[in-house]
Amino acid sequence: MKRKYLPSRLRPALAFLAIPFFLGSGSLLAEEEDPVRVAAVYQTAIEEPWVGTIHQAALQAEEELGIEYEFVEQVSAADFERVVREYANRGFDLIIGDAFLAGEEPARRVAADYPEVAFAFGSEFGPAEPNFSVFDNWIHEPAYLMGIVAGSLTETDVIGAVAAIPINEVNRLVNAYYEGALSVNPEVEMEVTYIGGWFNPAAAAEATEAQIEAGADIIFAERFGVFEVASQNDVLAFGNMTDQHSLAPEIVVTSALWNMYPTIEYLVRSVDADLFVSQDLKDWSMMAKGGADLAPFYQFEETLPPEVIAKVEETKESILDGTFRVPIIETDPQTD
Predict the structure, then answer these.
(1) Are 184 and 150 in contact (CB under 8 A)?
(2) Which domain holds residue 14?
(3) Which of the residues 93, 210, 213, 320 has an alpha carbon 20 to 30 A from that of 221?
(4) Nearest-CA neighbor of 239 among 247, 29, 231?
(5) Is 82 helix (H, G, I), strand (E, B) or coil?
(6) Is-contact 242 282, C-beta < 8 A?
(7) pLDDT tens digits, 174-208
């Protein structure tokens, strides 16, 4: 099915027309001769939580919405444009992936050449008309809630964060974590280490060792590689993007969760109804729409001070009912 996507000035009319369609969001797509064909192009392995979250959402859409889904992982910068272009040439209706850094310009170039194809890529920049939408993991809200726990539990008044690269997407999580800690403990300080990439467990482990030596007694693992070292030193930790409790149940208190399915479902239904428009899909990755949450505390439910749990729940409810907004701070956080 060839589609020509419309500019955003028509968005209000489209939104009005779409209301009856999206009221049925719990049901399967209407049966048609051709399913919506979705392709994903990932720069890292799906083992890495960021793209893994998108991949799992696409698999869920394959099961629940009947889409046709193909993906390729670990695509190099040199090959990125070629791979995206090949999927566009093959007639896929929707192409998704991560455009950060090396993939940004190639993804946008291909989208400009194929206005009949819908594109939605993870990006720190804005959408481009008529057919390039952007998303990100806006999970600063659960990161703030984890900060409340960290600031309450630390005995050294030093908390840590081991993160990927100092860009907006990462900075806002680390800063929200710190702001949450400061909200309950104004004396707390934070150690921040960037490992210089999306997936480097060895570098993350080394950073964890250094932070523990500097006094950090609870660490936000924004990237993989923290838990083994933290466990060896009896230091508590937080996971990121997926529920990572099972990876180190003795030390992972909770995780900031990103649920990409609301975004994928919205995209698929928009494409299926010929209502796709370029837009920033930010809201679909936040707590109010089910795109973000805090994982359970598991056994820590019994050991955390009741007043800490109560504070987390109270703040969570305030976020959900709109009476509290977690600050979005995207400047580079600095080690105190």
Answers:
(1) no
(2) 8-137+260-289
(3) 320
(4) 247
(5) helix
(6) no
(7) 999 999 999 999 999 999 999 998 889 999 999 99
